Amino acid sequence: MFHEYRDDIKALKNKNPHFNKIFEEHNALDDEISTLVAHNTNDLKVTDLKKKKLRLKDEILRMIQEYRAGTL
Q: How far apart are CA 20 and CA 47, in angstroms?
């Protein structure tokens, strides 16, 4: 995710505990979704987790953009 922002992500993870928390939560959701899909789990649960993951991804991108703009 966001390979082009690798350096920014590393810096933010070290500087901002909230960023680090949501980044790790996003990765954990990704793993959970993959496991559920592999086991043919309820589509509704997977859909809900994907929505949560997308909200986190949007927040991560916003924080990266603010960091790059110097406003975070």
A: 24
